[in-house]
Every structure is written in C-alpha cells, then in structure tokens.
Amino acid sequence: MIKKSSKGAMEMSVGTIVTIVLLVSVLVLGLILIKNIFGGATSAVDLTNQQLTDQINQLFSQDTSTQVVIYPQTGQLQISKGNEGAFGFSIRNTDTVQHTFSYNVSVIQIANGCQMSASQAQNLIILGGSGSNYVIPSGSSLNQAIPVRFSIPNSASLCDIRYGLNIDADGQQYVSTIPLDLQIT
C-alpha cells in the first residue's frame, strides 16, 4: 500500500511539473505575441526604403488632396538613448504646374526641464535634415519617401522636442510648418 501511494505521488508531481512548464511556455509565447502586435513599426528606421515608400503611397491613396504625408502618421517618435530612429515623408504636387521643392527640418520647441539647447537638439538629426531640387510634375508625388534620421547619444537627457517640417515650392512656402515630436526615453 505504501508503494501505491508513492507511485501516485510520483505521477502527481510529474504531471504538475509538466503542467507548470506548459503554462510558462504559453505565457512567454503570449507575451511575445502581445509585444509584436502592439510594438509594430513606430519609426521609419524599422522599415526598408521600399516598405517606407509603400506605406507613404498607401497614405497618399487614402486622400488624393493631401500635399504631404508622414510616417508614422502620428508624427511622434520615441527613441531610447543610444538608438536611432526616423520618420519618413513625401510630397505631392497638387498645383497645376510643375514645381521644384525643398524642405528643412528644424527645432521649434524644447520642453521645459530638458537639459538640451536648440543646437544640440538640431544635431540629433544625422541624415535628411534638409533637401532641395525635388522636381515634381503637376498631380504627381515623389517616387521615393524621404527619411529623416535621428541618433540619440547615451548622454542625452530625457526630453520632448518638437521639430517643424517646412516645405517650399520654387522658393515659396508650399505647406505651413508640420510638427514632428521626438521623445527621448
């Protein structure tokens, strides 16, 4: 009788261990799935140039009167210290004549308490801070999206910075300043 109860106890403990291992595995897989669903691409740097262009074209197709589209659509980036991030944009010429476009991204506002000057915030842009000579015929848009890349050093303070995207057509303002928010985490 003692052997039967010890055999039952052994089966019970093996079954319990197997159940615990399976539950932990399901929990880990569930957490990974949730992270992938809600983590999505939050920056243009997560995408290849073709994927970024496809996202931009999809945004243009949703509204044919739009002059500029930005990815991510919220115009908000969160970049951790020591990492890079980017937003992408494209221009559509909605005028009846061909124009030569240029753009500039500059600091508009730095949140109170941020230990960074405007020039330091401007220097976070490592590529694509400005560009010119984009000739776009009437009714057309750029063939490629324009990425603007940021690099956040480990020494950067935690901040919220608002940049402005200014677009000119033939030297005249085409679109008023579009706000782009960067949060350093």
Commentary on this structure:
The chain has 2 domains: 1-39; 44-184, Sandwich (Immunoglobulin-like), CATH 2.60.40.3880. 31% of the residues lie in helices and 37% in strands. The protein has 3 helices and 9 strands. The protein has helices at 2-39, 49-62, 118-122; strands spanning 68-71, 76-79, 84-91, 99-110, 125-127, 130-136, 146-151, 159-169, 172-184. The strands form 2 sheets. Strands 2-9-8-4-6 form a 5-stranded mixed beta sheet. It has a 4-stranded antiparallel beta sheet with strand order 1-3-7-5, covered by helices on one side. The N and C termini lie far apart (64 Å).
Describe the secondary-structure layout:
Elements: H1 2-39, H2 49-62, E1 68-71, E2 76-79, E3 84-91, E4 99-110, H3 118-122, E5 125-127, E6 130-136, E7 146-151, E8 159-169, E9 172-184
Parallel strand pairs: 2-9
Antiparallel strand pairs: 1-3, 3-7, 4-6, 4-8, 5-7, 8-9
Brief write-up:
31% of the residues lie in helices and 37% in strands.
Tags for this model:
elongated, alpha+beta, Immunoglobulin-like, 31% helix, four-stranded antiparallel sheet, 2 domains, 185 residues, five-stranded mixed sheet
Looking at the overall shape, the CATH architecture of the largest domain is Sandwich
Give the termini distance in whole angstroms: 64 Å
- Percent helix range: 25-40%
Order of helical and strand elements: HHEEEEHEEEEE
| Strand count | 9
Residue windows where pLDDT falls under 50 for at least 5 positions? none
How are strands sequenced across the largest beta sheet?
Answer: 2-9-8-4-6
- Radius of gyration in whole Å, from Cα? 25 Å
Work out the strand percent: 35-45%
Find the structural class using helix and strand composition: alpha+beta
CATH class of the largest domain: Mainly Beta
Characterize the biggest β-sheet: 5 strands, mixed
| CATH topology type of the largest domain | Immunoglobulin-like
* Number of structural units classed as domains: 2
Look at the structure and give the mean pLDDT: 83
- Apparent shape: elongated
Number of helices: 3
